Amino acid sequence: MTATMTTAIDEASADITTLRPPQHRWSRRIAADLVAAVETLTVLLGGVLPAAIYAIYGGIKMDWALIVQSSFVAAFIVQVCLRSWGHYDTRRMHDFPLDPAGMFWALVVGIIGVLGLTLPQALGSVHMWVWYAAWLSASFTFILMVRMVARHILARMAAAGRFEQTVAVFGAGAIARRVRDHLCDKSLGVHFAGVFDDRSGEDRLDTAGLALSGKLDDLIRATHDGRIDQIIIALPQVADRRMADVAKKLEQLPASLHFVTHIASDIVDSNVAHKVSSLGPVGLMDVKAKPYSDWGPFIKAIEDYVLGSMLLILALPLLPIIALAIRLDSNGPVLFRQRRRGVNQRIIEVLKFRTMTVMEDGDDVRQVSTKDPRITRVGAYLRRTSLDELPQLWNVLRGDMSLVGPRPHALAHDDEYTKKLEEYAARHQVKPGITGLAQVKGWRGETPTTDSMKARVDLDIAYIKNWSLWLDLKILAQTFGAVIKGKNAI
Fold this sequence. Notes:
Layout: H1 3-11, H2 13-16, H3 28-58, H4 64-84, H5 100-113, H6 115-124, H7 126-159, E1 165-170, H8 174-183, E2 190-196, E3 212-214, H9 216-224, E4 230-233, H10 240-250, E5 256-263, H11 264-267, E6 277-279, E7 282-288, H12 296-315, H13 318-329, E8 335-341, E9 347-353, H14 377-385, H15 392-398, E10 402-404, H16 411-420, E11 433-435, H17 437-440, H18 450-465, H19 469-485
Parallel strand pairs: 1-2, 1-4, 2-3, 4-5, 10-11
Antiparallel strand pairs: 5-7, 6-7, 8-9
């Protein structure tokens, strides 16, 4: 790197190392998928519209079931071709691919692919061959127009930073300096948030001219605040123990985590890294992915609001009956409110129907045990059937919780087990849930030992790593079975 470029980067370091406030950003994958969806619709429209015009103004009787079926099959084949040929490359949002020849041949392949469906009619009618030609012409015109508009919109969004990922590097030194230099390339869509390191003293820390943005605690705090999307650990391979220690702490954060494996230009003369993943020429070994990336947050929100609303409507007739039973059974409020930690350890107020004679919400909260004398008669039934959790549907609709996720614990228990279990804080990467994988796997209810809590935490972390809509629906279905059995309920 030339001295002029190095000087320019150093002069810009004040801007580069400034942490941005959380802002709404678009997922590159979602943007590319939306373009793909619209282009799929254009192929469908390109097949149906000429047939409709032909039927209305030409007086030709068309087999509409065959037309629609053929259009759907062709649209699918065209999508397979375009994706295989790199037409939805998420790395090129600033310069989205525009390949008219590739689009044309994808359409040709798609239309030829449905000849088997329509050939018997085409052989007996010249009108079908005219429809093929009109279909190809209309679809090519539509899809080219869509791609040109999408290319312009995506380029403007990329220039405005809508696709930028905020990346921070842990570990000051020569490797971090070179990573920073490479990530300054604007075409990567990356905002460099700065370099963080815990070491101090000139004898231990060689920043290679980098300005430090803070220590490990500062990086953790910034990530919890939603200011960091990706973290790169840029330490020399000989520091494997230190890398492992740092990774254990950073794995608990709601951000992607990577190790630097190499700089591609050190190995081959190429701009692409040939490892697990890369940011420009920086080769990375992925440690974990950010929870609910790309379509995940959207799907999770739809799931919570749609299913949560339906369940709340179904539960409405029960709510006044349960409230009346609680008031008649014992003195005290109907609802129990307790502070617990939500996503990124933010304090939320969780609602439950009161099932005990106490309202503990302080530094000393005794966990409920089997045959606990504090549980009321009505409370015992509510806890066994999990009806005491129904008010948490309001927490879901309010956005504090999800239907499925790690169960939230009292603040006192959070503090206790955070000290005992190193991986405990990883539960707070996502919203807590009314039910979760741990609950349907037999860890519902009391956790009297550290080992039992660890088993629950391990399942919570497994859920976060393997989340999918299907997994959530499966857990919800299994929850009803667990409630009916009443296993481990207290």
